Amino acid sequence: MEWQTVWLTVKLASVTTLTLLIIGTPLAWWLARSNAWWKEVVGSIVALPLVLPPTVLGFYLLMLLGPEGPLGNLTTTLGLGTLPFTFAGLVVGSVIYSMPFVVQPIRNAFESIGKRPMEVAATLGASPLESFFSVAVPLARRGFLTGSVLGFAHTVGEFGVVLMIGGNIPGETRVLSVAIYDHVEALEWGQAHMMAAGLLAFAFITLVLMYMIDRRFQDRDT
Amino acid sequence: MSELSVKLQTDLDTFSLDVDFECESSGVTLLYGPSGSGKTTVLRAIAGLLKTDQCEIRFNGDVWQDGTHFTPPHHRPIGYVFQEASLFPHLSVRKNIEYGYKRVSKQDKRIDFDDAVSLLGVEPLLNRAPGQLSGGERQRVAIARALLTSPSLLLMDEPLAALDNKAKQEIFPYLEQLHTELSIPLLYISHDHNEAARLADRIVLMDDGKVTATGDAHLFMTRLNLPLSHKDTATAIIEGDVIEYDEKDQITWINVAGSRVGLSGYTGTGTRLRVQIYARDVSLALSEHRDTSILNILPVTVLGREELDNSQMMVRLKLDDDQTMLSRITKRSAEMLELHRGKQIFAQVKGIALL
Questions:
Q1: Where in chain B is the domain with CATH 3.40.50.300?
Q2: Interface check A122 vs B, CB under 8 A
């Protein structure tokens, strides 16, 4: 087993999920509450990776972030170098690719809370920020659970985007899904099997755990 | 002086609201009107939950909102009880009640946690989850939660409307206790005649987005030109002092405008009582009959009369101490008795209910 590859995969999924929770939560709140007419335009951009082939996404990211791309120019000027074929580039790609899986469940959860609990909190003297953390977030915890699990699992399973902008550098960008592909290409069925079976088990156990915790939350809320 | 002044103009989906009223804010002020007359909108504007441009709200000299200034709801010293209890489902009853309480600074805390909890009878519920409570219990918790923010003004939006009759009866005594034991002014929305009669000191009458009248609740109940006196349950609230309790007959005698009036059952002595007399329970006579089963006969003066339909007539009466009451009789009887303004007659009261 290539533990370096496993570790890198877990690290990538964790960093991606955490980043998505930090930027996705305010985004989901805005999508749930705003009355702006262009809200659904933003919503559609967030949802794009659901329907776009990962290679298309990866291709455009490569163009944008590469040395000739506008963002690549920016990162180079800032002294950060270019992002493709680095771990940071992989994180950027994963964040975009997994965004709908995190934002959508949280947005749905925020929407289903309705306005009332926040109004109640305000009449009880809580500022909007206090109400958000003490009322909206706990009430939307099922959405956060689903979003985190799906975001993590989806990042572990991504392949196309990684291949396009990450390549296959051991310890830097070589994650499990790419490693499996490599082993199959090299006809190393045994190794491919071990990794594939491991991922399958991981995915299954994750989903079972998620549904069980979700049911407990649901029981407690009713 | 405690005073609330509300000016509000806004276009809503189905109608436009144009409200301008001032009222003394002590005691219980009832915002009364049919559903859809804009009562809730007014209450939400006072709380700051609704932000509109054309709105001016002042309370006790403080500006809560005008053209340039808007105090957000969490900075207004209000308590708000919604129609549905709206407890936080993720918090225990105790945590729900503490949510507002812990956000009040020490010097502003005027109501003690234990006092409010026992006033509303929610101690045994403190460790439960909101999901385990009945509708009535939930609403009591919501009231305790609002009270413990030590509000300068308590707003209630039909807190009983979503409850069944049994739960209503369960909560009512607590509301009346609030009225008598706390000095927090209460603005209460209702379209229920009985709630109006039992709770209100003052009534702000609303219809179709406008305030149609403001004034003393007891007088309003009997004003013939206002809708309250036209209902089937039209009623008058009369106050009287307890004289004595007759143990043998189990009747409490009270003094109403110089006449002895009997109430069945023991109600305590030495206090002033409020009783409710339905218009349909009052008949009229030109002389004081002694040969009748009716116990309570009061000398009254006719103040006015109003036809309710082709056969029924509502008569407004004044007692010797200027309290007013209603009698619903047939048009034919009214003509036979030649009831006109200023005529001295006798009201025979069949039933009196203690409030």
A1: 3-217
A2: yes
Q: Could you tell me which residues come within 8 angstroms of residue B68 by beta carbon, excluding any fewer than 6 positions away? A: none
Whether the CB of B80 is below 8 Å from some CB of chain A: the reply is yes
- pLDDT for the residue numbered B110: 86
| Nearest residue on chain B to A217, alpha-carbon basis | B90
Q: How far apart are CA B206 and CA B32, in angstroms?
A: 6
pLDDT value at residue A221: 62
Superfamily of domain B3-217: P-loop containing nucleotide triphosphate hydrolases (3.40.50.300)
Task: Say yes or no: domain B235-354 is CATH 1.10.10.60.
Answer: no
CA B51-B210-B66 angle, 5° bins: 30
The boundaries of every CATH 2.40.50.100 domain in chain B are 235-354
Q: Which of B86, B96, B187 to mutate to test the interface with A (most CBs of A within 10 A)?
A: B86
Question: pTM of this prediction?
Answer: 0.82
Separation between Cα atoms, residue B137 and residue A180, nearest integer Å: 59
**What interface predicted TM-score (ipTM) does this complex get?**
0.83
Q: Please, what are the domains in chain A?
A: 3-221 (1.10.3720.10)
pLDDT reported for residue B249: 85
pLDDT confidence of residue A1: 57
- In A, minimum Cα distance to B144 occurs at A124
Q: List CB contacts (< 8 A) between B89 and chain A.
A: 139, 221
